[in-house]
């Protein structure tokens, strides 16, 4: 299964082509050094954005900066986050318009945009909750939509032929992050279940774990993964809880989801050339 912008928004192609024919975009596309400058700027803004996002997320998870409060870290990274988001979007848009014909039919690009919307929304909700100590009703709705967008992007990533191995990297990042963030006594449990899940997933990429009718085999593969993934997540959540309140646990889970969503964005971007 592969979903892209050409299939979901067929009218978008003509609109993007019209923008791509504007003198400014044509000049960028035809002048090598201008495109190189834009691409370099895009990478720099991504580095700034990544530092701001992961700095706050890892602090909320208790992995870095133990002597600083999460609120102080949020205040410190706030300007970098805003500059990173704005710069990445502007330079990414400029680059995307020059190669729109190759991006619109790309399943990986569709997944990246879906995950990007979710990542920005999750980071916004996290920063607001850290800054204000509470989540407004509007932000709860945004959180729900962002979670659905992220889960949808993960589903497409894992079910699209040629991209499913990229989704494995997201799972690997999640397993490592969860193992690092939980209590030490629960790390072997989380790592054991996560290793089993990733191994089953890796085997399933090349063929069914259980030979048989295709549909039945697919259900068996998913059931086998669920048997090990669910306990891993359960142990991870239990490990994140420690002696914290339910409010702090929710904040940690939000930071965990936000981190993995940005990892999904990065992985989908890397796999654009393979879709």
Number of strands: 0
Please state the CA-atom Rg, rounded to the nearest Å. Answer: 20 Å
Question: How many separate helices?
Answer: 12
Amount of helix: over 70%
User: Segments where pLDDT lies below 50 for 5+ residues?
Assistant: 212-229
Domain DUF6644: 39-134
Protein name: DUF6644 domain-containing protein
InterPro entries: DUF6644 (IPR046586)
Keywords: Membrane, Transmembrane, Transmembrane helix
What do you see in this structure?
The chain crosses the membrane at residues 32-58, 79-97, 103-122, 142-159, 165-182, 189-210, 216-237, 249-272. Keywords: Membrane, Transmembrane, Transmembrane helix. Residues 39-134 form the DUF6644 domain. The chain is mainly α and 275 residues long. It has a domain at 5-152. 81% of the residues lie in helices and 0% in strands. The chain has helices spanning 5-8, 12-20, 23-30, 32-60, 70-98, 100-103, 107-132, 137-159, 164-181, 187-206, 214-241, 246-270. The model is unreliable at 212-229 (pLDDT under 50).
Q: What are its keywords?
A:
mainly alpha; globular; 275 residues
Topology at a glance:
Layout: H1 5-8, H2 12-20, H3 23-30, H4 32-60, H5 70-98, H6 100-103, H7 107-132, H8 137-159, H9 164-181, H10 187-206, H11 214-241, H12 246-270
Helix pairs in contact: 3-4, 3-5, 4-5, 4-12, 5-7, 7-8, 7-12, 8-9, 8-12, 9-10, 9-12, 10-11
């Amino acid at each position: 299964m592969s979903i892209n912008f050409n299939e979901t928004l067929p009218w978008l192609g003509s609109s993007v082509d019209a923008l791509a024919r504007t003198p400014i975009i044509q000049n960028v596309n035809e002048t090598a050094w201008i495109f190189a400058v834009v691409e370099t700027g895009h990478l720099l803004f991504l580095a700034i954005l990544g530092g701001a996002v992961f700095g706050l997320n890892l602090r909320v998870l208790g992995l870095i900066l133990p002597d600083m409060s999460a609120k102080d870290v949020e205040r410190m990274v706030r300007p970098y986050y805003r500059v990173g988001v704005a710069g990445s979007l502007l330079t990414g848009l400029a680059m995307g318009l020059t190669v729109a014909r190759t991006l619109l039919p790309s399943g990986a690009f569709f997944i990246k945009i879906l995950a990007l919307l979710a990542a920005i929304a999750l980071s916004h909700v996290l920063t607001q909750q850290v800054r204000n100590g509470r989540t407004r009703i509007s932000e709860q709705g945004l959180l729900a939509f962002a979670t659905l967008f992220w889960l949808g992007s993960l589903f497409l990533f894992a079910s699209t032929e040629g991209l499913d191995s990229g989704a494995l990297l997201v799972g690997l990042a999640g397993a490592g992050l969860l193992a690092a963030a939980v209590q030490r006594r629960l790390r072997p449990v989380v790592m054991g279940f996560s290793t089993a899940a990733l191994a089953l997933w890796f085997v399933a990429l090349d063929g069914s774990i259980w030979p048989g009718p295709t549909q039945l085999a697919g259900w068996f593969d998913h059931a086998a993964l669920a048997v090990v993934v669910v306990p891993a997540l359960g142990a991870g959540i239990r490990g994140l809880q420690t002696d914290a309140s339910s409010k702090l646990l929710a904040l940690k889970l939000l930071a965990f989801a936000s981190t993995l969503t940005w990892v999904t964005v990065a992985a989908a971007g890397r796999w654009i050339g393979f879709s």
